[in-house]
Amino acid sequence: MKIAVFSTSQYDEDFLSQHNTGHQIIFFKVSLSEDSAVLAAGCEAICIFVNDILNKQVLDKLQQSGLKLVVLRCAGFNNVDVQYATQLQIPVLRVPAYSPEAVAEHAMALILTLNRKTHKAYNRVREGNFSLEKLMGINLYQRKVAVIGTGNIGQAFCRILKGFGCHIKAHDPFPSVEMKELGVEYGSLDDTLKDADVISLHCPLTVDTQYLINEHCLKVIKPGAMLINTSRGGLIDTKAVIAALKSGVIGSLGLDVYEQESDFFFHDCSELIIQDEQLSQLISFPNVLITGHQGFLTQEAMTEIAKVTFDNINAFQAGSPLLNRIEIKG
Ligand code: NAI
């Protein structure tokens, strides 16, 4: 099959080439958009990632140029109009759970770094400054952590928290029996947020979860709480969160995702003036730590992504059941 792969970095090319089961792959560093869709002309499949845009207009263009299949190299699909693709009879397949631990461990890395300020200590020590002023953290042991969304990643995260001896409260419309057995206590969103020392988001971005963290719930949370988002930027109302950081309602913020990330993340913008005022502001805060959507970036996750992507393509080609097809409910 001839496959156009968009938004590639060197690691995508390496892992996909290594696990290719005989397809003709064309790598494009650019993201998929209305402008770049023409690059996939003549390809039966496209392989896309989190910031590629696959809306009605792009789907129309691609269908006219021969598109039969969409494979995502990720779990989240908020950037794809799956309903319209289904209408066009173009299946959209994803990699539902390549390595939940990769993202869960990254969430914990953000928490540990923000809490114990190892990023600041690293810089200080390199300059011969061994002062401990302003480096104090808290024990995570017996602290309360709110986990919003206990699917694959949320559950992996809860297991890590258990090892740290944290009290875990969670909110999910579909509570997990296994997590309850682990000692996770489920409640409403407000109840889960209200006395948490750390809040970590692990639910998908949907119409219902857009701005889940908004002005209202920032009134509910315990002043000084740490907020972590490794899920999708749109879960957070950035303006409201910046105000909460300024007033001290949020004590610290760790982000691996950002609402307008597609203009910056995965690119080297070090020689550019960042034109996004909110992002510039967040980067300047001493209690904010931002990583550029790297939660998935482990060897294990990349191997699984490549393998499942080719399994998905091969199943489509063979006319086998499409186990990882995204189905539209309702
Ligand atoms: P999943 O589908 O296994 O779990 C999502 C959970 O969220 C489900 O249990 C669902 O019931 C729950 N949920 C849905 N609506 C909710 C709401 N309103 N409040 C609370 N919970 C709600 O998904 P998985 O694999 O755990 O991934 C979660 C998200 O993580 C993905 O949607 C994606 O956005 C993000 N992600 C980020 C990565 C990164 O590199 N930073 C990599 C992979 C995924």
Q: What name is given to the CATH topology of the largest domain? A: Rossmann fold
Q: Which class of the largest domain in CATH terms?
A: Alpha Beta
Mean pLDDT figure:
96
Small molecules held by this entry? 1,4-dihydronicotinamide adenine dinucleotide
> In angstroms, what is the radius of gyration?
21 Å
In percent terms, what proportion of residues is strand?
5-15%
Using the alpha-carbon principal axes, give the shape: globular
Order of helices and strands: EHEEHEHEHHEHEHEHEHEHEHEH
Helix/strand/pairing class, anyone?
alpha/beta
Summarize the entry for a quick read.
The protein has 330 residues and is α/β, with parallel strands linked by helices. Helices cover 36% and strands 15% of the residues. It has helices spanning 10-19, 56-64, 82-87, 100-116, 118-126, 152-164, 177-182, 189-194, 215-220, 238-247, 277-284, 299-318, and strands spanning 2-5, 24-27, 45-48, 69-72, 92-93, 144-148, 167-171, 185-186, 198-201, 225-229, 250-255, 288-290.
Task: Characterize the structure shown.
The protein is α/β, with parallel strands linked by helices and 330 residues long. It has two domains: 2-98 and 299-318, Rossmann fold (3-Layer(aba) Sandwich), CATH 3.40.50; 100-290, NAD(P)-binding Rossmann-like Domain (Rossmann fold), CATH 3.40.50. It is built from twelve helices and twelve strands. The strands form two sheets. Strands 8-7-6-9-10-11-12 form a seven-stranded parallel beta sheet, with helices on both faces. The chain has a five-stranded parallel beta sheet with strand order 2-1-3-4-5. α4 packs across α6. The radius of gyration is 21 Å and the shape is globular. The two termini are 32 Å apart. The model has no long low-confidence stretch (mean pLDDT 96). Bound molecules: 1,4-dihydronicotinamide adenine dinucleotide.
